[in-house]
Specification:
8-stranded mixed beta sheet, 478 residues, 5-stranded antiparallel beta sheet, 3 domains
Length: 478
């Protein structure tokens, strides 16, 4: 029997797992998919919000303000890209300026440092490509950008290094209360645990309802995005927002940590049975485009290298749900973690650990806990370091992805790590082959060959992402 089972291997579940691995506990993460970070975590804006937007007194406000300052340390420990570039919320009329004043007042009450309302001249000085009809902006210098799925993967790898077991391809079908905890029934096995932490994202309400009465509902909302080539990186240096509305924070234009530009999302409410529908649609993508040009008129959409969508978990409560179930002791819901969920994640993890400690007598520290995880990025090394690494392992001298200059050595490393890659997109999210201009058109087959070799699998068994995403179905010639 495990001490703690976490359901869901997104950034929230993995943060909690890593935080719990600082203690002597038998911990497992149970994930229905073939990879970690395959839900909302892999498809969002990847923004670390300043914390001025959430209503004071809410869990969103509390955990965003506490979580934001934690990113420098945790990203350094885990060797994850993070840049504190600041954000601007633009105003184009007097009504927008009133909204900025409300956001500023919220920020002050939420104790967000150094926020200020700036005039048009200052906006244009900071961002010359902003449309000329801007009249002011709210500037939040502590906002940043992060590799969201890279962070989730690093957390899972570090948690695994510290003893956490990762159980993939196990979809939770039911949960039963037993005398000393819970029996989790998956599509493959029975798993027993003293405590259960529900981090199931858009399915968190379904998981809760297996053991407790319905106290909240998740409304799935899909957002669609553009990713532009690195040659478009000149258009902005900050995260650019428009004034928020009833649909959320609205369409943003921002750099990514790897030098691309991300534009989006829209907000489309889905039906209950559409929680996994990640297709992009022409109407919604066109809406994103037409809305974004209000911020920066000359966005070079001809440099688009891909479009994608993600589904976020909108709670009907209007706030994060982070609490032990009233009628299922030892069952903790961490649900409805929409934006600013990523920004709040490290603080949420610490809070959940405190909830576990309240129920768990005599929790002992893991003196062997190692907070460090390293990732070799060959292209960022000095010439001397590159030569030294190639001499030690010639695979670092073979470039597989020419768009991003990714070597075979980096790909092998991403597969061999604890909680390592098992799919083509799993490799892409760890080491970035296929993330560049050609989107894997040239390197994809080589990545498949390396995966098949390293995992000792038939190449026809290698999938793109989920279990059903087969790439090869057989030989064209015998």
């Amino acid at each position: 029997m495990y001490n703690v089972v976490i359901i869901g291997a997104g950034v929230i579940g993995n943060f909690i797992a890593r935080e719990l691995s600082k203690y002597k506990l038998n911990i497992a993460i149970v994930e229905k998919d073939s990879e970690v970070s395959n839900g909302t975590t892999k498809a969002n804006s990847a923004i670390v919000h300043g914390g001025y937007d959430a209503k004071p007194g809410t869990k969103m406000a509390k955990f965003n303000s506490e979580g934001n300052p934690m990113f420098d340390k945790v990203c350094k420990e885990l060797d994850v890209p993070f840049k504190k570039i600041g954000s601007l919320v633009l105003a184009f009329n007097d009504e927008d300026m009133e909204t900025l004043k409300e956001l500023y007042d919220r920020g002050i009450e939420n104790k967000i440092p150094n926020i200020e309302i700036i005039d048009k001249n200052k906006v244009k000085e900071m961002e010359p490509n902003i449309n000329d009809d801007v009249i002011g902006a709210l500037y939040s210098p502590t906002a940043g950008i992060v590799g969201a799925y890279e962070l989730a993967i690093a957390l899972a790898e570090n948690a695994a290094d510290n003893g956490v077991e990762l159980i993939l391809n196990n979809e939770v079908k039911d949960i039963e209360k037993i005398d000393d905890g819970y029996k989790i029934l998956t599509n493959k096995q029975e798993i027993k645990s003293k405590y259960v932490i529900n981090c199931a994202g858009v399915y968190a309400d379904k998981i809760n309802n297996m053991v407790a009465k319905e106290t909240f509902k998740i409304i799935p909302k899909r957002g669609q995005y553009y990713i532009l080539d690195k040659s478009a990186s000149y258009i902005t240096n900050h995260v650019i927002f428009q004034c928020p509305n009833k649909f959320g924070k609205g369409v943003l234009v921002a750099p990514t940590v790897h030098g691309n530009i991300i534009v989006g999302p829209d907000s489309q409410e889905l039906n209950d049975d559409q929680r996994d529908e990640l297709q992009t649609t022409s109407d919604n993508i066109e809406y994103v485009r037409n809305t974004a040009v209000k911020s920066i008129e000359k966005i070079p959409f001809n440099k688009t290298i891909t479009n994608f969508s993600g589904v976020r978990a909108e709670p009907d409560t209007g706030d994060f749900i982070i609490e032990e179930s009233q009628d299922a002791k030892g069952f903790i819901n961490v649900a409805g973690i929409k934006s600013p969920g990523l920004s709040s994640a490290p603080a949420i993890a610490q809070y959940v650990v405190e909830l576990v400690k309240e129920r768990y007598d005599g929790l002992e520290k893991n003196k062997d806990f190692n907070p460090r995880r390293e990732m070799i990025v060959f292209n960022e090394l000095s010439k001397e370091k590159k030569a030294e690494l190639i001499k030690k392992d010639p695979r670092y001298g073979r470039v597989i992805c020419r768009c991003e200059n990714i070597t075979e050595g980096e790909i092998v490393d991403s597969i061999r790590k604890n909680a390592g890659a098992t799919t083509v997109d799993g490799v892409k999210r760890r080491a970035r082959p296929g993330a560049g201009r050609c989107q894997g058109g040239f390197c994809g087959p080589r990545v498949m060959e390396i995966l098949a070799r390293e995992l000792n699998k038939d190449i026809e068994k290698i999938v793109k992402d989920g279990n059903e995403s087969n790439i090869l179905t057989g030989k064209t010639k015998s």
